[in-house]
Amino acid sequence: MTDTMDMTGTMPISLAIRLDEGAICLSDVSKVFGREGSVGAYRAVNHLNLDVAPGQMLALLGKTGCGKSTIFNMVAGLTEPTSGVVRVGGRDPFADFNSFRGRMAIVFQGDRLLPWRTAIQNVELGLEMLDNPPADRKDRAQKWLIQLGLGGHENDYPHALSGGMRQRVSIARAFATDAQILLCDEPFSALDESTAGKLRAEFVRLVKENGKTAVFITHSISEALEIGDRIVVLKRPAVIAYDVSFDKTTSQEERALIRERIGAVLAA
């Protein structure tokens, strides 16, 4: 276990992530909404430095309004930083947005399934957008539905599926594209804890087994400890207040200490 404290602060166009650089790198990144210094301007991210290694499962943890979603959107290429540099696999996700087709997939808080499409058709959607051949789309969608325990439900429409099953379809859709990086925006927060716990465990297993890099936004300490092999706690405006890494060998006593430290940072 290592930690540091600073209280001041979809897609077979495959461009391989170089292992000699971070999968995701934010260097001295700030994001200000509105013209800085003007009335109503809001600084969401403040001189943030963050590197995510290939294969890492990073949980971004913090209270509502701490800048988690802004960081998420910059990494996804949906908005650009006011200053500093954002790189994903060495490229600018905002300026080179089209080159990231097939490199990143997003799992949202809601399942965002199309109600007029069956489960397998929803999983195929990203592959259709990538112009994969129909037979390949169907085979890959079927494989991931089975992986996520939905064999036999391929032809069910979303209204016939439970909330947990719909989110499994959403996760299958993300994995089917074979994206190297998964961005997850509180994907289990709308589910009951029993269902969410099972899905979290499956998600972590699939990420690790398939060598993906994942960034997982959450406001739950328990969820961060279940999901991450690294937790970064953010304080407003999006500065790193606590950064800790751990693995399966980390003892329950050490995990309890991590939980206490995170609680203290969030309460400060």
Shape category: globular
Which H/E pattern describes the elements? EEEEHEEHHHEHEHEEH
Overall strand count? 10
Strand content: 15-25%
Taking pLDDT < 50 over at least 5 consecutive residues as the criterion, the unreliable ranges are 2-20
Q: Tally the helices: what do you get?
A: 7
Task: Please give the largest β-sheet.
Answer: 7 strands, mixed
Question: Fraction of residues in helices?
Answer: 25-40%
Supply the key terms.
alpha/beta; three-stranded antiparallel β-sheet; 7 helices; globular
Quick rundown:
By secondary structure, the chain is an alpha/beta fold. Helix content is 32%, strand content 24%.
Topology:
Layout: E1 2-5, E2 24-33, E3 42-52, E4 57-61, H1 68-75, E5 83-88, E6 104-107, H2 119-129, H3 134-147, H4 163-176, E7 181-185, H5 193-209, E8 213-218, H6 221-227, E9 230-235, E10 239-245, H7 252-267
Parallel strand pairs: 4-8, 4-9, 6-7, 7-8
Antiparallel strand pairs: 1-10, 2-3, 2-5, 9-10
Helix pairs in contact: 2-3, 2-4, 3-4
Structural features, described:
This protein has helices at residues 68-75, 119-129, 134-147, 163-176, 193-209, 221-227, 252-267, and strands spanning 2-5, 24-33, 42-52, 57-61, 83-88, 104-107, 181-185, 213-218, 230-235, 239-245. Mean pLDDT is 88; it is low at 2-20. 32% of the residues lie in helices and 24% in strands. Helix 2 (119-129) packs across helix 3 and helix 2 (119-129) packs parallel to helix 4 (163-176). The protein contains seven helices and ten strands. The strands form two sheets. A seven-stranded mixed beta sheet has the order 1-10-9-4-8-7-6, with helices on both faces. Strands 3-2-5 form a three-stranded antiparallel beta sheet.
